[in-house]
Amino acid sequence: MFRSPEILLDPLELVPGQTLPCRILPGPMDGVTEQSFLTAMSIRNWVPCWWTPFLRISTGVPRQSRLVAWLKPYLDTGLPVIAQIMGVSSEKLAETARRLHEAGALCVDLNCACPSPQVVSNQGGGACLKNPSWICKTLLDMRERCGNRAISVKIRAGFASASELPDIAAALREARPNLVSLHYRTVTEMYQPIPDGLQRLRQAREALPDIPLFGSGDLFTADDALQMFHETGVDGLLPARGLLANPALLQQIQAACRALPLPEPSHSEKLAFLRDLARPGRENQHAPNGFLLRMCATLFGRNSELFQKLVHLHKLQASWEYLDRVQKGF
Asked: What is the average pLDDT score of the chain?
């Protein structure tokens, strides 16, 4: 049955009183979705909400004051926030989820997807997929602590094989989170190319007919997004790395859903975005400009005069001062 992609622009109610503004959201990216990136993206309306990188819960449940401070940069954007947590203690994760809701999170997300070897070696993130019953128990504990507030889980198609997906889906059907996001690779596949990613998402859709499902994996263009939507039956899309190649990607997907021309940032808009991205805070004035260089290469090319200049400036403070002068035409 044909579904119009315009449905992706509709709000999604997770629980009464807790609603996502639309169904095209930015995926969490550790080391990216923080600091000046939040501001630079938010003020341009290039994102409808924020999904935090994971907060690792290990030795104890963080104090409320620490959780409030951690969430503050995201909440300060004025956008809804999905707070992601990761760990191995169901009890500690559940209590942390409750406290994050008290701190202002729209939803609390359990990370069972991170493929980092360091994370997996500590039995967190994607390693949790080896034990679907633990995922079920943890989500049920989160539900008990959080009451009628929204909880979600981020998974991959399996740990070592996509053949694990039916057992994972069965655990999720029992736990009934308010949202599931699925990256279609397994943990061991990391980010390598696979031929059947959309087929795996379609399998998950069939196995989780009554739980909202968002798809993730190789969403780099608006065409990628529409293909995933039409071929898998997912309820929403979660581009992540695609935003590094094209910060306006979500806006372009929204336009494609309406069959409108894709908005392309102008040269001056790209320059202003790069300047805002370089804006240093007190804590990182002397930080290297490596991430800025990565974004500059994407937006202007490695052979551009701008990229070559920033390479020699090395630090964020100097880079911001230079970009500010260029933007003002000095």
From this structure: 96
Q: Which helix (H) or strand (E) holds 320?
A: helix 316-328
How many CA atoms within 13 Å lie on the side-chain side of 313?
A: 23
Please check whether residue 262 lies inside any domain of the structure: no
Alpha-carbon gap, residue 118 to 54, rounded angstroms: 14
Residue 12 lies in a domain: yes
Q: Which residue is listed with tokens 């034990």? A: 131
Say yes or no: 296 and 214 in one domain. no
Distances from the Cα of 315 to the Cα of 21, 35, 299, 321, angstroms: 37, 16, 19, 10
3-state secondary structure of 198: helix
What is the number of domains present in the chain? Answer: 2
96 Cβ contact list (under 8 Å, min separation 6): 55, 57, 61, 62, 67, 85, 87, 108
Domain hosting 170: range is: 5-257
pLDDT of residue 31: 85
Q: Which residue, chain included where needed, has tokens 């990628």?
A: 224
- SS3 of residue 49 by DSSP: coil
End-to-end CA distance of the chain: 57
Amino acid at 274: L
Q: What is the CATH number of the domain that holds 245?
A: 3.20.20.70
Same domain, 225 and 84: yes
pTM: 0.95
Tell me: the pLDDT tens digits for 272-303?
A: 999 999 987 766 667 899 999 999 999 999 99
Same structural domain, 215 and 108: yes
Are residues 68 and 37 in contact, defined by beta-carbon separation less than 8 angstroms? no
- 71-123 per-position pLDDT tens digit: 999 999 999 999 999 999 999 999 999 999 999 999 999 999 999 999 999 99
